[in-house]
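User: For a reading group we're discussing how well predicted structures match intuition. Take Fungal lipase-like domain-containing protein. Before you show the prediction, I'll give you the sequence so everyone sees exactly what went in.
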Amino acid sequence: MSIACCCPVLECVYCLACARWAWQKCLYTAGHESEHWGLATVEEFEPVPRLCRLILAVYEDDLHNPLWAPPGGYGINPDWVFLRRNDQETQGRAPPYMIYLDHENADIVFAVRGLNLAKESDYAVLLDNKLGQTKFDGGYVHNGLLKAAEWVFDAECEVLRELLKKNPSYTLTFAGHSLGAGLVALLVMVAVQNRSKLGITERNRFRCYAIAPARCMSLNLAVRYADVINSVVLQDDFLPRTTTALEDVFKSLFCLPCLLCLMCLKDTCTMEEKMLKDPRRLYAPGRLYHIVERRPCRIGRFPPVVRTAVPVDGRFEHIVLSCNATSDHAIIWIERESQRALDKMVRHVSLAREHSEEHKAALQRAVALDIPQAYSPSTYGTFHEMEGAGSSGGSSERGF
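Assistant: Thanks. Here is the predicted 3D structure of Fungal lipase-like domain-containing protein, as structure tokens, for the group to look at:
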């Protein structure tokens, strides 16, 4: 009898616990992950929108007559496209890519397209992996993406070597989205390890921008290569947070919300310390840039903010239950929001400069009008320092 009386109580406690978990998960937003990160600067984030447009340009068959150009166009010179490879030329070993000579920014850009849902070969690359299957440079990497990266490097090594020889002051930038992001992240690691084949000795001539990347390398590699690799994630994007086998994700593509809920439950029951100590676990690569444009319990989009860090723990460990989890993965949205974020940063910098110039002009005008206790701006100190010096001088005079 006593056991029967306890059953309803246990059911109520269980239901309350489930309701609390669901409530916390629904309130959890991607903005919480990066709330303690620093803000990105204009200089470091400036290449992101430009490289997103270059990645989009890989989808075009004829760049002189583009069909899907974003507002304002791709912002590139079609005559500066040095090389293009399509699906037939890559033989399904890698997604299509192109090499672009960006003479305006002294950069050689290797841009790789994202996943093509209609190509079985793209799925084969992404799904060719098992936990702890492949080691590289003291860590673990995604097996299929590493094989694709090594094939691309072997195929284009001589081309890149000649371009770098002809343009000794140019940087070499790898950029990709989704599947291409994981490929370029491992490709730049292969290139850094074999930079003698490219005729480069300086590590800082390599750069990589992985846009919405899949998890492709272990934590030690993700942190070690943070000086070269930069990952860009838009708000709730599901792929950089996907810890479940990608095969299960794409098998359940039409029921992705159900899978995301199950992954949330699994992540909740897994201790973070246990995850960090597993050397085989894969993570989003390099330095992270998180574009945040939505706030909890608010409708619509706000001016985007870009936060950046090289986190060790809290590295996009939790799936976000959001209706934007899949749309935030689209390169079109990432290009648009990254450009908005960059425009906002530039405006803030220009406003700060304008305010500083207005302040100097006001100080000079006050001196010109013989305003009492007015000081002209000094190049060796601030107005507050001069004001403090004046106050101390006045007090000493009163003392005498």
